[in-house]
Design brief:
- This protein is mainly alpha-helical and 301 residues long.
- It has 15 helices and five strands.
- It has a three-stranded antiparallel beta sheet with strand order 3-5-4. It has a two-stranded antiparallel ribbon with strand order 1-2.
- The two termini are 37 Å apart.
Length: 301
């Protein structure tokens, strides 16, 4: 079983990547505890662990700082640092997601229910619930117990989330402060080429989802509009459940990658109007494709 600090350490690594923090960025423990909604103690332990693994440096009386830029895909960084979840935790995570979509789990549930139903140890239970809570599809109830989000557990919910993105993402490319850094373009382009080179078939559902999220969030983040950025992150956190199930049909990803690359080419040439229109068409294409595989998204009778 993995060190129990690994879950928080993984979240800190993900945050470093999401925020594009450069080498030498200060990471105050209280700031991280607030961002991750945990106490300072596990954050301190995770920071010490990342320092041991060379991700962070430590300065006396000042705290921890990023040692380097983390450009590699998140799953590769996590694997290289030995921070992966145990096979049991990952397997149970997907079983819970599928059982929820099958409506075999109540929206309100206790930790004991999950622990008993899936045969987990206390450490495994904490790891699974920590991941689910971070991704926004369950939260602890005041007082006692947990509750799954009732959002995005039906096929129409996933389509509604795409319609919101259809209204938001093309507009983000037209914001006056829009700037997509060359290094971000390079990272996004490399991720798409990885998928076209075979990653579509070999990547896990997690990896496929995260690559798509990283691409679209990078475009919205480049707008500089904090309201756009907050909205897209919230939507992406809670649409994960049905996104996993839609990945049972992966043939559409080849065209998606080609369209992603074309948007990057247009933005690199500062042809934002064309990129915005093409991105709108791309999202409409995705909505149409999801409508055609609605039977996959439906729970079994």
């Amino acid at each position: 079983m993995k060190n129990p600090d690994n879950s928080i350490a993984r979240q800190i690594v993900a945050l470093i990547q999401e925020q594009h923090w450069e080498a030498g960025t200060h990471l105050p423990a209280q700031m991280l505890a607030d961002r991750l909604r945990v106490s300072r103690q596990p954050v301190g332990e995770a920071l010490a662990l990342l320092h041991e693994k060379g991700v962070l440096t430590r300065e006396r009386n000042r705290g921890f700082f990023t040692a380097r830029v983390l450009n590699e895909p998140l799953h590769e960084v996590v694997r290289g640092l030995g921070l992966e979840e145990s096979d049991v935790v990952t397997s149970v995570y997907f079983r819970i997601a599928d059982d929820l979509l099958r409506r075999e789990l109540p929206l309100a549930f206790s930790e004991q229910l999950i622990k008993t139903r899936y045969g987990l140890t206390s450490a495994q239970l904490n790891a699974v619930l920590s991941r689910i809570a971070k991704e926004g599809w369950a939260e602890r109830k005041p007082g006692y117990g947990w509750e799954f989000s009732s959002m995005l557990t039906t096929p129409d919910s996933l389509l509604q989330s795409y319609r919101l993105r259809l209204a938001l993402e093309p507009a983000a490319l037209l914001e006056p402060a829009f700037r997509l850094a060359p290094e971000v373009i390079a990272q996004c382009r490399a991720a798409e080429h990885h998928l076209l080179a075979g990653g579509i078939e070999t990547d896990t559902a997690d990896q496929l989802h995260d690559r798509g999220v990283r691409y679209h969030e990078s475009l919205v983040e480049a707008s500089g509009n904090t309201f756009f950025i907050d909205t897209i992150r919230r939507v992406n956190r809670v649409r994960r459940l049905l996104s996993y199930r839609s990945m049972q049909s992966r043939g559409r990803y080849i065209e998606h990658c080609k369209q992603h690359l074309h948007v990057l080419d247009l933005l690199e040439r500062e042809r934002n109007d064309e990129a915005s229109e093409f991105l709108r068409q791309h999202l409409q294409h995705t909505i149409a494709a999801l409508s055609r595989i609605e039977d996959i998204l439906q729970p079994p009778p």
